[in-house]
Amino acid sequence: MRSVALKDRVPLGPKGPLGVLVDPMTWRAAPYLLVSGAFGIGWFIVLSMAVPISLTLAVVWVGVPLMMATVLMWRGGAMLERRLMYAAFRVKIADPYRPRPERGLGAHLRWLLADSATWQDLGYLLMLLPLGLVEAAVSIVLWSATVMLLIQPVLTSLWAATGLYTDLTIDNWPGTFVAAFFGALLLVLSAYLVRGMGWLHGTLAVVLLGGSEEERLRASRARGIDAAEAERRRIERDLHDGAQQRLLSVAVDLGRAQSKFDTEPEAARMLIAQAHAGTKAAIAELRNLARGIHPAILSDRGLDAALSGLAARAPVRVDVSVELAERPPAAVESIAYFIVAETLANMAKHAAATEAAVTVVRDHRGVVVDVWDNGIGGALVSPGGGLSGLADRAATIDGVLVLHSPLGGPTLVRAELPCEW
């Protein structure tokens, strides 16, 4: 997909003390912040040893493969951190690296060392040491103090029952309940601080792990080129395997009919009829191919009519709602149409759905396309797959495709297509 912009960062949290306490985001972020210091220490030790050693040995070429392995190692660590960012803070950060070359040691070295994302990964992993230590220290102090204050009634009860007394036990009930009250306040404060530290960490992760804006634009252009090339190959394949073969068969039939016209007029008429049927079939295939490139109804009547036509041809009932006061640019209309077409085709093949819905609305960023079905779910965005191709189409205009498809369903494919009227 693409990296998420800073405005899409994890929010500071829901309003109200109860909201921040029951929000799962708080309790997903808390464990990561507790151990982030250990991550920082571990990466600092590993990198402070591996980088100088590989650089020193590089002068005699022994260190070149070691340096490549070191760079790949910290890239792998950065990729793991991107996944942890989503698990802990629900921050989606795509891997921003340039495409890997097919062969050549020199090409691989340039691929690794000339990519600015490589050095931003290193900067992030080194930043984990001070940032992680601060996060872990604050988290440990806050949660330890909170727990000790909240369990004072339990400690006092144990002291009253057993006579065991520690320096952490309050020996009178009024003080115990006052401590528990302040523990509850500190619990709320700790939850807010966890969300605040999570927001800061997620923002820094996006800046460093998401790559530069130039890299994102380069990646978007590359994906657009790849998508256009794949589309060109598909059109060539469809022409070669479909209409071209039919027209070749028509030419052969007409040639045979011409040779039999005087001697076997009845056979010639049959061949001409066969050529006529083949011509109509070829015209139908060319029409379908042209519709696949850009349907005429989309140009003439817009998204609402084009999507309604797709829904009418779907094997299940599809509700269509298009709420656009004005027609968006042609590129946005085309991408939205093909996203819906491919998604409905995938639904018919794999989802076992009985109903679906398509919604197209305008928001402050552009056009949002939602395709929902009540099928079995479990859809994935895999390299080379149909959904990956749709993400590439969206990326040509810096759009994003989001998939939500848990096992058992339902499935929601959302495309956010920025544009200006």
TrEMBL record:
Its EC number is 2.7.13.3. SUPFAM superfamilies: ATPase domain of HSP90 chaperone/DNA topoisomerase II/histidine kinase. It catalyses: ATP + protein L-histidine = ADP + protein N-phospho-L-histidine. It comes from the Bacteria. Pfam families: HisKA_3, Sensor. One of its GO terms (molecular function) is kinase activity. Residues 231-296 form the Signal transduction histidine kinase subgroup 3 dimerisation and phosphoacceptor domain. Keywords: ATP-binding, Kinase, Membrane, Nucleotide-binding, Phosphoprotein, Transferase, Transmembrane, Transmembrane helix, Two-component regulatory system. Residues 32-209 form the Putative sensor domain. The chain crosses the membrane at residues 29-47, 53-74, 122-155, 175-194. This is histidine kinase. It comes from Nonomuraea marmarensis.
